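Structure first, sequence second, as always.
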């Protein structure tokens, strides 16, 4: 029995090790870059809203947080016919989704918190052609994902190549068929998208940072007052 447990633990830890071997690429998250968040919102509506919702956020809230005119957000970002008070709802029918993908595309409001920004950034960049799969593609970060590559026209087609080094073998993804964006432009595109998803995960972050400065200022001021008060009281006792 003991041996069995040890073997189980060993295989588990090896499993975890194998998963961590693929290094994630780092996203450059910047909460205060409102232009980036705005661009990301537009990318999200154009390329993801077809299947995914982000129902914890409304168009109006985005407009307020990025200091944009709500009318402009409505005309430039929201899909046609949407109201400024709408949440980012996908029009995809749940039953259709089950039929097409075998699973429902999850709501993405909190995905940046559960998966992390680097994971999202790497995931969206790691599709490659794999003709043995039903979708014709696979993903290095999320193996056998049921999601087709939503950005293939922009990125182009990637192929997986096995490279050997003295430390062992690893897989490198190489673009053989360029898309409509250059590699740098695509990186920026995905980064904006992830920046937006991080913002959606915690929209009050910007507000909190602004308020935080006042709170610290107040605490410092109060410290001085408290000190003066203490001096005043103890004066009579001495
Ligand atoms: C054609 C429909 C479709 C489109 C468009 C689409 N997705 Fe997906 N997505 C899916 C499906 C289906 C899954 C579930 C995959 C699975 O569980 O294997 C998924 C899963 C995901 C996940 C993994 C969630 C998790 O934690 O398991 C993320 C992140 C994601 N999508 C992000 C995006 C982003 C960002 C876009 C826009 C660039 C996008 N998706 C566009 C269908 C879609």
């Amino acid at each position: 029995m003991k041996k069995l447990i040890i073997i189980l633990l060993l295989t588990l830890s090896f499993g975890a090790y194998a998963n961590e071997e693929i290094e994630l690429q780092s996203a450059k998250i910047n909460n205060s870059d409102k232009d980036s968040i705005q661009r990301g919102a537009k990318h999200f509506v154009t390329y993801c809203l077809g299947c995914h919702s982000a129902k914890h956020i409304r168009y109006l809230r985005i407009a307020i947080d990025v200091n944009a005119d709500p009318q402009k957000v409505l005309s430039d970002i929201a899909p046609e016919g949407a109201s400024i008070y709408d949440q980012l709802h996908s029009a995809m029918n749940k039953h259709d989704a089950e039929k097409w993908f075998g699973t429902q595309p999850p709501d993405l409001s909190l995905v940046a918190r559960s998966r992390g920004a680097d994971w999202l950034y790497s995931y969206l960049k790691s599709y490659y052609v794999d003709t043995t799969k039903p979708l014709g593609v696979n993903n290095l970060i999320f193996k056998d994902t049921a999601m087709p590559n939503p950005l293939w026209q922009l990125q182009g087609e990637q192929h997986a190549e096995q490279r050997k080094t003295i430390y062992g073998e690893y897989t490198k993804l190489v673009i053989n068929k360029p898309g409509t964006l250059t590699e740098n432009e695509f990186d920026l595109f995905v980064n904006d998208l992830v920046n937006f998803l991080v913002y959606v995960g915690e929209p009050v972050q910007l507000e909190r940072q602004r308020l935080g400065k006042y709170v610290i200022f107040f605490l410092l001021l109060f410290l001085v007052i408290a000190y003066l008060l203490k001096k005043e009281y103890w004066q009579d006792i001495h």
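Margin note: Residues 2-202 form a domain with the Cytochrome Bc1 Complex; Chain D, domain 2 fold (CATH 1.10.760.10).
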